[in-house]
Amino acid sequence: MSTTTTDERREAGNGEKFADWADGRLGIYTLAKTNMRKIFPDHWSFMLGEICMYSFIIIILTGVYLTLFFHPSMNEVVYDGSYVPLQGVQMSEAFNSTMHISFDVRGGLLIRQIHHWAALIFLAGMFVHMMRVFFTGAFRKPREVNWLFGFLLFFCGMFTGFTGYSLPDDLLSGTGVRFMEGAILGVPVVGTYLSFFIYGGEFPGGDFVARFYSVHILLLPGIMLGLMITHLILVFYHKHTQFAGPGRTNKNVVGAPLLPVYTAKAGGFFFLVFGVIAIIAAIASINPIWEIGPYRPDQVSTGAQPDWYMGFAEGLIRVMPGWEINLWGHTLVLGVFIPLVIFPLVLFAIAAYPFIEAWITKDTREHHIADRPRNAPVRTGIGVAWVTAYMVMLVGGGNDLWATNFHLSLNAITWFVRIAFFVGPVVAFIITKRICLGLQRRDAEKVLHGRETGIIKRLPHGEFVEVHEPLDAGQLYKLTAHEQTRPAELPAAVDENGVKRKVSAMEKLRVKLHKGYFGEQSQIAKPTAEEFEEITSGHGHH
Amino acid sequence: MSSQDNSENLPSEQDPEHGSVERARDPFADPGLPPHKPRVQDIDEAAARRSERVVAGLFMLSMVATVAFIASFVIFPIDKIVYIFPFGHVSALNFSLGLTLGVALFAIGAGAVHWARTLMSDEEMSDERHEIAAPPEVREKVMQDWADGVRESGFGRRKLIRNTMYGALAMVPLAGVVLLRDLGTLPEDKLRKTMWAKGKALINMNTNEPLRPEDVAVGSLTFAKPEGLEEDQHDFQTQIAKAALMIVRLQPENIKDKRELEWSHQGIVAFSKICTHVGCPISLYEQQTHHVLCPCHQSTFDLSDGARVIFGPAGHALPQLRIGVNSEGYLEALGDFEEPVGPAFWERG
């Protein structure tokens, strides 16, 4: 092109000059070369992670504002602010300053409510995002490590949330802090010491608000910020997964470029999320501490509930039978300690899943095509089983509310939860797997016989048939793009030299599991080209 | 399904435009990216201009909302409560600030997304992926560099250096661990003792007056604290967390537990208010059955039978306080609780 020489000679604008300056110091052009027009695939489920990131940013922004007014102190003061019903009441400075933020700082209540709502949405977003990644198998190589970072974000998020809502030192959150003390006391051998070290002596003491504060605003968010940045760098580095479709393969990524479309959509989405949360905070009050009152260890309100993401732990502690073993002058508080152990175990089970699946499949290839959940029935079944266990415990955590709102017996609900925690996941697994297989059958049917159009046609001899419309090439590809793994077999008991082969118990277990994953009862063979040819060539009828 | 020879309910012959050689062999082969379908904005400039106006309109709405936010901040007093259907009585300031801020933010987002969807190119593009793992020659080079580095350090050869370094690195965190020692006092017997002691009068939590037996009616639940514990005391919270007491009057003949009867006074029994599960204060009393229920985790105790657990996650009965009447006719404690109150712990025994 002859015009380029003149273009290069034209005076560079200020923006360009600045970019040159920055490039000379930061090397931004090399970075931009690969990233400015980086392709991001589009699917509604890919925005779940964005919701998490944006709500995290909103939490940081509003959180910094709140620290300007909040006093993390448990010194007792007498309230003399503008909320009349609590005037003259003794409370900690923490509670007092939260009242001040809510009633005497203009916009303070709004920011508090945005902060709290965003936290609930952050955790819910992470939960759903994690499920999306799980059910589409997007955790497979090369993304296992990023799955762990994401899991740690969820795990840290729970405790950041807990330490955060405990800060106002109100009656509700104080009850949660007391619950934490009781749970720690239940730890064998060191529990009592742990509790005394965490609370600075006996509960409640005068230290925990200040300590939770530094954990809540510095330690955990610092860790989470690092994790989130790493998480995003890895998303960039791996490039996003995509669903199979015409032109979309394991070797490419199809979608819109970062500049301008993805920037506009994702950047715009930040404002959408922030806007919606601001509106929620305007119309729905959250944690009205003025109605709850300051914490007193000898008072409590009925219907005490933690924030939703702790409801699972609450359920475990509520439905566990009160087992205590007294031996040799010591008490093993199983009724508290078992829930305390199950709580992280259930969570870690889902965190460890990618590594278990990789061990079973022995698949070391990279996977960039997201699975449709139906095409991995066992994994989908396990995921739904896990969610079922989680949800059952969430019901358990609110057993009193279920009882009062639905006029049910509290004891019956508790027993239901105790049983359903074990039975529910099994039932959910079986049903989910069957649904997946049914959907696979339907896909196969669609591929071979086309789509049901709903048009009924009468044939000359009087018979009615439904007209089936053949799928186009793109849909045929989409429905048959998934690969189907053949179940593993144990090697022959005797090798070619006639020597008895030694197979470890672990390998036997692996092969057994592999058969469970990919055996006949776990997948419907997808249509073959021959089957398709036979039917389409017109003489495939029986 | 129909088994008729009816070509219309079967897939047709292949579409000629996708009928590549590849597809002739494999009907399920990837047909490649479909051709781009133009949107109305791509072909109709009037539609594109309409989109432009919508986007600009949204951005302008955002500006208006920001002005309204500032106006609300100035206009509405912080204590003004208004009735707004269907939200009920709300703070005018909070409501208007939240709504205007929400609109100001949302409109920017909606504008940006609408811009991207209708006016920016929607032609799909494709990037290649490259394997994450490095090619063998890179791997080779890294391994060699590592081996060189390790060799040059003498790490493997000079074992004395290596082992002492491990030792030093393992020990230095101990300094940090030791520093944590003063996070709290040691438990000692603090969890076994409360403020209750022989001769301490039972003070009614509500009236702050000592209780007489006749103040405690059958069927009522009274909360009490030990004499000498005042709310403005600096360790009030810590003391009440152990000493909180609940008092009920039962008919002596209804008391099934022998020791409970012995420790009661005319059917008045005093139990720790702190649940033995994880320490919530118990506050719900059912006078017909003499059951008390912890509202946190629903542990239920039978106060007529030594406060044993009859439902829920608590592991043992509520400790009872032995009470009597002093010379002035007031209820008093005859000692401290004989067992630790509150949640169980390892050293409880």
Automatic annotation (TrEMBL), chain A:
UniProt xrefs under PANTHER family: CYTOCHROME B
UniProt keyword annotations, A-Z: Membrane, Transmembrane, Transmembrane helix
Organism: Streptomyces noboritoensis
Pfam families xrefs: Cytochrom_B_N_2 (PF13631)
Lineage top rank: taxon: Bacteria
Cytochrome b/b6 N-terminal region profile domain segment(s): 18-244
Entry EC no(s): 7.1.1.8
Enzyme class: translocase
Catalytic activity reported: a quinol + 2 Fe(III)-[cytochrome c](out) = a quinone + 2 Fe(II)-[cytochrome c](out) + 2 H(+)(out)
Protein name: Cytochrome bc1 complex cytochrome b subunit
Spans traversing the lipid bilayer: 44-66, 116-135, 147-167, 179-200, 212-237, 269-290, 332-356, 376-395, 415-432
Swiss-Prot/TrEMBL cofactor(s): heme
From TrEMBL, chain B:
Keyword list, A-Z: 2Fe-2S, Cell membrane, Disulfide bond, Electron transport, Iron, Iron-sulfur, Membrane, Metal-binding, Oxidoreductase, Respiratory chain, Transmembrane, Transmembrane helix, Transport
Biased composition regions of type Basic and acidic residues, renumbered to the chain: 15-28
Membrane disposition: Multi-pass membrane protein
Subcellular location: Cell membrane
Location, primary (coarse class): membrane
Segments of skewed composition (Polar residues): 1-12
Membrane spanning stretches: 54-75, 95-116, 160-180
Residue ranges occupied by any Rieske domain in the UniProt entry: 237-332
InterPro entries, per the entry: QcrA_N (IPR045603), Rieske_2Fe-2S (IPR017941), Rieske_2Fe-2S_sf (IPR036922), Rieske_Fe-S_prot (IPR014349)
Region span, Disordered: 1-40
Pfam families: QcrA_N (PF19297), Rieske (PF00355)
Role played: Iron-sulfur subunit of the cytochrome bc1 complex, an essential component of the respiratory electron transport chain required for ATP synthesis. The bc1 complex catalyzes the oxidation of menaquinol and the reduction of cytochrome c in the respiratory chain. The bc1 complex operates through a Q-cycle mechanism that couples electron transfer to generation of the proton gradient that drives ATP synthesis.
PANTHER family from the UniProt entry: CYTOCHROME B-C1 COMPLEX SUBUNIT RIESKE, MITOCHONDRIAL
Record-stated family: Belongs to the Rieske iron-sulfur protein family.
Name listed for the protein in its UniProt record: Cytochrome bc1 complex Rieske iron-sulfur subunit
Species lineage: Bacteria, Bacillati, Actinomycetota, Actinomycetes, Kitasatosporales
